[in-house]
Amino acid sequence: MTGGRGRPVKFDESTQGAYLKLVAEGVRLGEAADRCGISRRTPTQLATRNPDFADRLAQAKTAGRTWRAEHLVHGRASTYNLHACRCTPCTTAATTARRTHSHTTPQPHRTAQILTLPRTNPTTATTQFPHAS
Ligand SMILES: [Zn+2]
Q: Which positions ≥6 away from 98 have C-beta within 8 Å?
């Protein structure tokens, strides 16, 4: 996830396909647009000009609604984030996830040990490593 608001990418065939797929999988429109790197308005704009796309978008939305009704698992941060579910279990999960996230486990103290091994003449070194098996 880039999170950046860079220049919107072109909403070409393949991006449209990816976008519609996300929508059909129950991802809400704004989130799907973000994930495709397009402006949230782009699909709506395209739909007004392009009846075929409007159709596909409508179908994807219907599929997405059905998907959400059937598959949404509550009490998950992803449900809160991706599907904008604001029910108590989802909100709690998202809050917990955020808290855990900002609290990244500190790396165990590690002192880099770079040992300079005494090197015998490399051309005559005959060290054999025993096979693991
Ligand atoms: Zn929920």
A: 77
CA of 77 to the centre of ligand 1 (A): 9
* Burial class, 80, CB count within 10 angstroms (exposed 0-12 / middle 13-18 / buried 19+): buried
Angle at 60 between CA 56 and CA 61, to 5 degrees: 120
Q: Find the length of the chain.
A: 133
| Å from CA of 72 to ligand 1 middle | 7
Q: Which amino acid is at 9?
A: V
Per-residue pLDDT tens digits of the chain, which is 133 residues long: 444 455 556 899 999 999 999 999 999 899 999 999 999 999 999 999 999 999 999 999 999 999 988 888 999 999 999 888 899 999 999 999 998 865 555 555 665 656 666 666 656 555 566 665 5
- Residue 73 alpha carbon to ligand 1 centre in Å: 7
